[in-house]
Amino acid sequence: MSFTPGHISLTFAIWPDSDLLAMGSTGIGIVLPQGVHCAVVREQSEIKHNIVIRGGSSVEDPVTLRALELLGFKDEGLTVYLRHDLPLGSGFGISGASALAACMELEKNLDLCVKASHQAEVEFRTGLGDVVAIAESLRTSVFPSIVVRQTPGYGGETQSFPILEKFAVCISGIGRDTSKIITDEKWIEIINSAALGIQIAKPNIRSSIKIGRLFTEKSGLVNDNISQILDEMPIGSVSSVAHLGTSIVATSEDMDALVEKLNEFGQVRLY
């Protein structure tokens, strides 16, 4: 069974390109120790198309199926079983993680798996940099970690930094439609303007979340409800949003007080 971790985007800039492999994003994110577990079985039946099973039921997952096709496994009668530690649509990069986990069950060359998964995710506009960031942590076997995507697309430069401090994630609601945001010219201009000049030399969890909050406020990628929740965090804590979801990532010197507050708004994971 393969495993791929989830990824939280704290900041990102969008780099459009007619080449789907070159298209992507740069920015700062957090790779989590939880994510997607996958097993793939070749069914002994006359049915040749591949299917995806999540939570015991067959589901539509065009990103995963497209990644398998790009890897050379189209209509092989495969059943892809996915188990998620983190929910879809909440800002954890689960679409890309699922595609990558499925590819890794069938191909041992990580670069080939990343190439297929990144192209599939960009093609369906479910993400731009999640697969690349996740792959960086898989190569180093370090998570949780902060990953800085320095250049966009498949083969882009990345750098990872282990997270040594405690932090928490609050799963709160369903986020924005990623495909609508990353293909909208006005949003691309706003997002890239907000990301302009954001740099971090030696990131730790606190400095990364602070920069994420700055990006969030400059870009406007947060609704009034989440903005109010961020403002209610205890004194001494820093918090931001898992883009393009509504989950909250935060850290504090007083983690007990932070977790108690976050529990008012959703399910809390402590790392």
Give the SSE layout.
Layout: E1 2-15, E2 24-42, E3 51-54, E4 57-59, H1 62-70, E5 78-84, H2 94-106, H3 110-123, H4 130-140, E6 145-149, E7 158-162, E8 168-171, H5 178-182, H6 185-195, H7 205-219, H8 224-231, E9 238-241, E10 248-251, H9 255-262, E11 267-270
Parallel strand pairs: 3-5
Antiparallel strand pairs: 1-2, 2-5, 2-6, 3-4, 6-7, 8-10, 8-11, 9-10
Plain-language structure description:
- By secondary structure, the chain is α+β, with helices and mostly antiparallel strands.
- It is built from nine helices and eleven strands.
- It has helices at residues 62-70, 94-106, 110-123, 130-140, 178-182, 185-195, 205-219, 224-231, 255-262; strands at 2-15, 24-42, 51-54, 57-59, 78-84, 145-149, 158-162, 168-171, 238-241, 248-251, 267-270.
- Strand 6 and strand 7 (158-162) form a beta hairpin.
- The mean pLDDT is 94.
